[in-house]
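URGENT: need a sanity check before tomorrow's submission.

F., can you look over the Myb/SANT-like domain-containing protein record below? I want to be sure the sequence and structure line up before it goes out.
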Amino acid sequence: MRWNNNTSGFVLRRMSQIISDGSRTDKCFKDKDVNFVAEALREYSGEAVSPTQVYNHLRKWRQKWARDHPKDAEFLNTPIKFYTEMETIFSSSMATGRFSLGSSEPLGVNQADNVAGKIEGHGFATAADVKTSTEMGEGSKATDLLTSTVGAKRKRANFSEDEMLMMTNMIDAVNNVANALKETGPAHVDLTVMSMQGFTYEALIVAYTYLLENKALGRGFVNMADNHRNIWLRNYLAKNYYM
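Structure tokens as predicted:
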């Protein structure tokens, strides 16, 4: 049996008429009603049709009816009011504002945390604040210049997205310079150690490696007088069994 709009309409009209006359479907169709509709359809269309085919066809239409109700009619083929605005507000398909990731920004870096933590979490330092902190001896720490107003109750300025991105990049650049300065080894420590007289090349390499790993000691060694360097080297190498 091939169903079409004509045969489907016939079955639905006949079943609707039966139900209207007082027969109730409850949760399923009664066998006598299905058999009656199947016989009527066979006489109407001239095609062989079984009650099971009619029953399954009615089940299909019941599923369609369960997903469609008259209260939905106002939305059918009708533009939804303020849809564009609602999509902008409630849609989660794309991040906007400071949470969006540009094509030139590195992957694996949470830009939202950078902006929120570095800009919203701390007040912005003004020129006067920078000058004051420098005079108090705190100017050697580049990061402190930008976070010197932590905890102060200030009104946050309203910045555009471009300005916030530029400020974030500036903070990262300053922090990178500060970290690079901290990681740089003592100046001329290699020349100072390797030029010491009276020690083997192997012993000087051992001392040089130790001073590189301990930057504070390396700076102190460079600033020592020659006789003091000689004493320090002998003591260190003696403790490490190189003398």
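My own read: The chain has three domains: 5-72, 108-183, 189-239. Residues 161-183 form the longest helix (23 residues). If you see anything odd, call me.
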